[in-house]
Amino acid sequence: MSWSPDVTEVKSWNEWDTLRHVIVGRADDCHIPPPEPALDAKVPEDSDMRGQWGRRPQETIDRANELLDGFAAQLQARGVRVDRPTPYDFSKPVGTPDWEAESSFGCMPPRDVLLTVGREILEATMSYRCRWFEYLCYRPLLQQYYDADPRMRHEAAPKPRLTDADYHPDYLSDAIGEAKRLEWAAAKHFVTTEEEPLFDAADVLRFGRDLVVQHGFTTNLKGIDWLQRHYPDHRVHAVNFPGDPYPIHIDATFTPLRPGLILNNPQRRLPEDQRAMFERNGWEIVDAAQPAHNAPPPLCYSSVWLSMNVLVLDPKTVCVEKSEVYQADQLDKLGMEVVPVDLRDAYAFGGGLHCCTADVYRDGDCEDYFPKA
Length: 373
Ligand code: DAV
Known about the structure:
The chain has 373 residues and is an alpha/beta fold.
């Protein structure tokens, strides 16, 4: 049966089949979170964000929303159904019996929170205290999908305690230095401990019956093991990228474009031993083009490699941020139609085109792209 805009149905097995229905985030009321153990380790040491927190300036919120609304309208004009989250009051302090945080974060990047695998949408554990309640922004949509689609499964991973035991104390310093960070990343010594399962949905890439998950700051090995037990019919592969001193989310590092083709960040190459499964099955991993910018925009958590954070609309069409001319050119040469999208002034709110979206429906079924084990 083919997709119809009048019927709500949840289904998405991979990152590239034709996109029909998607969630696009909002910048409303977005806060720079106050210091907390998970976050301090993840803000680059030379970042202008160090020592700043509170509600972002209204004019930057308005500008980011203008761009997110424009992206949503562009997708709608191409026939994609678009839904938007419902923010709660992010200025309110939040807490559990174990901790308190002065504010929440926002709801610009649904990709971090929601993992769509087949007919299920799973709420990730997350690993920042300020993001503990972020799933609430998506509950109105998830309830709507659940009511409309009798085959949809709505799941939530166990909420983590997020006590200090979840974070390595040696990461909680302002002056670790890049050399030490790279050494720790290569040794897979990350800020999060193995106290309890932790993962962000944006550390997971979907390749049909295989899931590729980055082990790093936001996802630990227990989180990856939890995903394997949760999806017993999938093969879950842990990967890591030693060249990344701040490994947060896989989607500015490793970007599948269509069956057989992946872009890899040339500063964060997949180690040789982890390439085997791709090579054995005829997948090509190519270095991504250089970013067009030397530095991220002001008050941004992410690196310049958001250039690679593209949204694939179908195996021949890809949305690329409008200023990322080198990335656009490479994708054009790889045979894809490039749809330019103006989003850079929204990067600071939680990322790029992949981050600010979450799949609800893509065509296609669960296929085995790696039959040679
Ligand atoms: O390169 O800063 C950003 C990923 C956001 N989801 C980076 C990773």
